[in-house]
């Protein structure tokens, strides 16, 4: 089983991402009058970014790798930094800003995004080569902090209002909980990247397994939430 997971890491990851995006599209009609539609658009975007991220392999497969070899875009670190590290942080902070009602919390997330973008741009300008040569940990960690703030503010508002009475029926709760689990299980791994650089294969394989299991849990969780949850407007109507 362990060998199967490692040997099919890429296929399994892409499969669960595709599944989540596909389920999102077939449930889009159900959520088209709610903010969840933006989350569905994001899942499709994630599928797109993952397809594009493998462009070095495409060049290699078609015998055209020499076109990017030795260039700044030879590796795809820059793409993941822009599309995932920055893109996911900006989206989820925006998403939770929309589902939160507290004006102060909305303002915190709004200006948090401004600071994040400005700080990231300044960091890239002064660390241009790092941006293309490796994971930009400053942007990655700052983005995680921004998402965490959005999730925490959502949960604080949730438990302080009557919405907590039917939280288990809302898709926002599951999105927040799943994201929290994913970040808590994968973020600590970046602090041990020194072992990856040292080619410690035991640690590398452990990292792959943890990330794969976390990804499967996250995207399958998103798919199930989209299938089983009702639009919040309908939940409120039933509640009344």
Write the layout of secondary structure elements.
Elements: H1 2-7, H2 9-26, H3 28-31, H4 36-53, H5 55-61, H6 77-99, H7 103-126, H8 128-133, H9 137-159, H10 171-186, H11 193-197, H12 201-228, H13 232-239
Helix content: over 70%
Strand percentage, roughly?
Answer: under 5%
Roughly how many Å is the radius of gyration?
Answer: 19 Å
The outline comes out as globular
From the N-terminal CA to the C-terminal CA, the straight-line distance is: 49 Å
Low-confidence stretches: none
Mean pLDDT figure: 90
Please provide a written account of the structure.
By secondary structure, the chain is mostly helical. It has one domain (2-239). Helix content is 78%, strand content 0%. The protein is globular, with a radius of gyration of 19 Å. The termini are far apart. The model has no long low-confidence stretch (mean pLDDT 90).
Please describe the structure with a list of short key phrases separated by commas or semicolons:
240 residues; mainly alpha; 13 helices
Offer a concise description of the structure.
The protein has 240 residues and is mainly alpha-helical. 78% of the residues lie in helices and 0% in strands. It has one domain.
């Amino acid at each position: 089983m362990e060998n199967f997971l490692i040997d099919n890491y890429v296929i399994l990851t892409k499969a669960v991402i595709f599944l989540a995006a596909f389920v999102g599209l077939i449930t889009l009609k159900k959520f088209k009058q709610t903010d969840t539609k933006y989350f569905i658009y994001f899942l499709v975007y994630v599928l797109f970014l993952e397809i594009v991220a493998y462009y070095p392999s495409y060049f290699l497969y078609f015998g055209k790798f020499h076109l990017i070899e030795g260039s700044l875009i030879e590796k795809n670190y820059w793409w993941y930094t822009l599309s995932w590290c920055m893109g996911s942080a900006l989206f989820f902070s925006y998403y939770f800003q929309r589902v939160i009602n507290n004006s102060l919390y909305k303002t915190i997330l709004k200006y948090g995004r401004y600071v994040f973008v400005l700080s990231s741009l300044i960091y890239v300008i002064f660390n241009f080569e790092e941006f293309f040569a490796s994971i930009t940990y400053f942007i990655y960690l700052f983005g995680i902090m921004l998402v965490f703030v959005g999730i925490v503010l959502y949960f604080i508002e949730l438990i302080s209002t009557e919405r907590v009475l039917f939280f288990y029926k809302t898709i926002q709760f599951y999105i927040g909980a799943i994201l929290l689990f994913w970040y808590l299980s994968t973020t600590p791994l970046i602090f041990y990247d020194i072992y990856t650089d040292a080619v410690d294969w035991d640690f590398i394989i452990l990292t792959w397994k943890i990330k794969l299991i976390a990804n499967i849990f996250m995207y399958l969780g998103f798919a199930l939430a989209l299938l089983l949850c009702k639009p919040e407007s309908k939940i409120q109507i039933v509640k009344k």
